[in-house]
């Protein structure tokens, strides 16, 4: 069995666990940029490279792109059907367009491009600007774009942006209510999960003074991508450390305990992107009190009665339970075949069917047992079984959706 578990872990984690934390730290080096022109039918040219890609994390994080946009150049007007992006301006200023409305944004700042919103960037100055682009997809690894054939050169501007944007302003950071605790650590949540339709959870801004490190923060139900705007230090993930500097990017995986340590002479400043493993999964802390109960009933059913037993569940048992106060859910389980059971080294058993029923409380389940409907459903089940037994459980956690 241990060998099987080891094989499963290798399959599930793949190359992820093989990469050291130092191997996850990628420097934003302009020497690696590729020259691109007419990006999404935009004007001029830009430098481009990818720092983190779709295969690096287990969540639906798609990419972290970076580069420079030359003067009088840009990314043309386009939109995406199934990804969300966020452009970050690290230097200079540029004209941002969201859904046809254009305004000048000055660095350091960011502009989220929500699902289905058309967007573009144009650098109307003569100086290059440095940019980042984060993206999260609805389906892991899936990208795609639709170009509108509009370079936005000479677009009419609104003096006040008619779209969501955020400033990377250290004056707005506060030392209280920060998940990254530590002496003098300052923090601000710029954007929360309500802004995004994908599993994008948050955009955070963080500073760490010289000689300070954060307490370990566990990434519960989420992953995080970090970009170092300034400073140097070390990042530790579950006891393994790596060194980072200005313009480095790195990431933490779900479940890891992340510690950030400023070992340099300047304040460390970070932009942090959080991605939930799934917004559909309501992942909570361990419960102090049960949230429900489950009764687990095992049956020995002859092969000749198997079809009738399964039909009974749908035609009699479920209809009888769904009208009961406090009923939550149920499942009918059929045991694996002998060959499948051997493959997974399953515990031998003579019980070949199981019915799980869940009620809000044990008291409400007992009311179901005392009901007229139960006097019909239970005999219908046991009449088709040679043997049966049951156990009761308190529900202390689930991920049922």
TrEMBL record:
It comes from Flagellimonas iocasae. Residues 71-133 form the Cupin type-2 domain. PANTHER family: CUPIN TYPE-2 DOMAIN-CONTAINING PROTEIN (PTHR35848:SF6), OXALATE-BINDING PROTEIN (PTHR35848). InterPro entries: Cupin_2, Dimeric_a/b-barrel, GPI/OXD, RmlC-like_jellyroll, RmlC_Cupin_sf. Keywords: Metal-binding. Pfam families: Cupin_2 (PF07883). This is Cupin domain-containing protein. SUPFAM superfamilies: Dimeric alpha+beta barrel, RmlC-like cupins. It comes from the Bacteria. Signal peptide: none annotated.
